[in-house]
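Quick question, first post here. What does this chain look like in 3D?
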Amino acid sequence: MSETVKLCPVDEIPEGEIRGETLPDGSRIALYNVGGRIFATADRCTHGEVSLSEEGTLEGKTVECSWHFGTFDVTTGEATGMPCEHALKTYPVEVIEGVVHVTY
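> Answer (accepted):
Ran it through. Tokens below.
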């Protein structure tokens, strides 16, 4: 069964930025503002276990892990650059009255 949680005002995630959040179940996620749309993925790189919200850089819709420079498409979670081979888990996002809601 999935739940939806309110996380933060959308204006606290500037375009091109990453914000880390913790879900009620303890999972860490990363929120990304890509062209004014918010996307959410697991916060840990699937290759090096580094926090993408703390150590990653966002360029367009691609987040790059600073440890080994692997990349992911934050809109789909797909691994797009070696050494990353496994996709990031993604989460549905909805902005309601200016607040980011994530279903997990």
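The chain has a mean pLDDT of 97.
The first strand starts at residue 4 and ends at 9.
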